[in-house]
Amino acid sequence: MKQAEVKRFDSLYAHHLKLLKLQGKSDKTIDAYSRSVRRIQKHFDCCPDLLTVDQLENYFSQLIDTHSWSTVKLDRLGLMFFWKHTLKLDWQWLNMVKAPKIKTIPDILTSTEIEQLIGAAEKLRYRVFLLTTYSMGLRLEEALSLQVGDIDAGRKRIHIRRGKGHKDRLVPLPDRTLHALRLLWKEHRHPVWLFPNYRGSMATIRGATTHMNIGGTQSAMKAVVSACNIKKKYLYTRFAIMPIPGLCRQHPIYFPSS
């Protein structure tokens, strides 16, 4: 692109980011919607508003061949937002991109398999994390983001903040999970995080400013799944997991009693 066009695109892109924030979009949505604009700009090496309908049709046709439908849908939504709110132009052409309706039944781990996973996790923080996630049906980031102040031990419930759709909710807290969380906290005694970043000495961990790394946690969970030789198409992600009633009641062997 010529310098003048680069400058114009940068200005539009900055406005795009501002509008996404003003509409209260989550960080992940902002990242996805902005990435869609950068992707198409890089593909054609021009500002997206200069593209013709034929070019856009060809672009999405190629995108479908090289990316998953989830990526294609996110790009469609991101460009729709860019056209409608940033450029203030007609965006009806985006309706030509429609994902196929496919209904699949997810593989669900049994209570026994989950107990295997917890038992196979060598580090206490991952055992507690697995128990917390599955006993209450939390998403990965919901569990990682738990703070000490979110626990209401008296009422046996935990406050999940800014979950899916930026909504808070209260979730029942099983006795076994409460005990495990207390055990883990006694190990690190972080004033804020229940699952602080475990890098460095214990003193460093106690002063961590962030929770455990998402990618590192996912990698650890995948390793545990592999060690248990579970053959289901199981991948630990940030998506919701069905809570397992009574998890670990029959086999309370994973955590000390005190």
Task: Describe this protein's structure.
The protein has helices at residues 3-22, 27-44, 53-66, 69-86, 111-120, 124-136, 140-144, 175-188, 202-206, 214-227; strands spanning 151-152, 157-160, 169-172. It is mostly helical. The chain folds into 2 domains: 3-96, Orthogonal Bundle (DNA polymerase, domain 1); 111-227, hpI Integrase, Chain A. Strands 1-2-3 form a 3-stranded antiparallel sheet, with no helix packed on it. The model is unreliable at 234-254 (pLDDT under 50).
Structural class: mainly alpha
CATH superfamily of the largest domain: Intergrase catalytic core
Which sequence of strands runs across the widest sheet?
Answer: 1-2-3
CATH class of the largest domain: Mainly Alpha
Brief account:
The protein has 258 residues and is mainly alpha-helical. The chain has helices at 3-22, 27-44, 53-66, 69-86, 111-120, 124-136, 140-144, 175-188, 202-206, 214-227; strands at 151-152, 157-160, 169-172.
Which descriptors would you attach to this protein?
3-stranded antiparallel beta sheet; 258 residues; hpI Integrase, Chain A; mainly alpha; 2 domains; 3 strands; DNA polymerase, domain 1; 10 helices
Task: Compile the SSE list and pairings.
Layout: H1 3-22, H2 27-44, H3 53-66, H4 69-86, H5 111-120, H6 124-136, H7 140-144, E1 151-152, E2 157-160, E3 169-172, H8 175-188, H9 202-206, H10 214-227
Antiparallel strand pairs: 1-2, 2-3
